[in-house]
Amino acid sequence: MTGSESQLDSYDRKILRNLAEDGRLPITELAARVGLSKSPAQVRVKRLVAEGYITGFHAALDPEKLGLTHVAFAEVKLESTTEAALAAFNRAVRKVPEIEQCHMIAGAFDYLLKVRTRDIASYRRVLGEVVSTLPHVASTSTHVSMEAVKDSAPGRG
């Protein structure tokens, strides 16, 4: 447990768990679920936001309804891993809407990208026209997801 995590008590943890499951939970219902009255719950939520435990409230979109059911993971090797090359790649990858996640990896490749598209043809276009042209990309290798067995945010288990 990090120092900042140790400052969270059981009420804070319950608040975070409940909001991770439903960010639109009314404060009165949240308070009842965690065993507090409305005002103390509201104060705690404001503090958790101010201290950076809660970084925002987002709508969870259904990729299937949006026709974005194809998920692929692309391993990316860079031709250079200087700080300037890494920074250029990081800036560019943030601008690509099909890339849901980008992780710098310690291992046989440099980055792992989670790419969501409509189908394999769309993925092939994104890979060839976008990912492969990002700054300093030397090579890529793709792994296609057949099924998401678990896909949850922190606190949602």
Write out key terms for the chains shown.
157 residues; alpha+beta; four-stranded antiparallel beta sheet; 5 helices; 34% helix
Distance between the termini: 17 Å
> Helix and strand string, N-terminal first?
HHHEHEEHE
Task: Going across the biggest sheet, name each strand in turn.
Answer: 2-3-1-4
* Number of DSSP-assigned strands: 4
Largest sheet: 4 strands, antiparallel
**Strand proportion:** 15-25%
The helix fraction, in percent, is 25-40%
Determine Rg (CA atoms, Å).
20 Å
Alpha plus pi helix count:
5
Please tell me what the overall shape is: elongated
**Based on the structure, what is the oligomeric state of the protein chains?**
single chain
Mean pLDDT: 93
Quick gist of this model?
This protein is an alpha+beta fold.
Give the topology:
Blueprint: H1 10-21, H2 27-34, H3 38-50, E1 70-78, H4 83-93, E2 99-104, E3 111-117, H5 120-129, E4 137-144
Helix pairs in contact: 1-2, 2-3
What would you say this structure looks like, in words?
This protein is α+β, with helices and mostly antiparallel strands and 157 residues long. 34% of the residues lie in helices and 19% in strands. It is built from 5 helices and 4 strands, in the order H-H-H-E-H-E-E-H-E. A 4-stranded antiparallel sheet has the order 2-3-1-4. Helix 1 crosses helix 2 and helix 2 packs across helix 3. The chain is elongated and about 55 Å long.
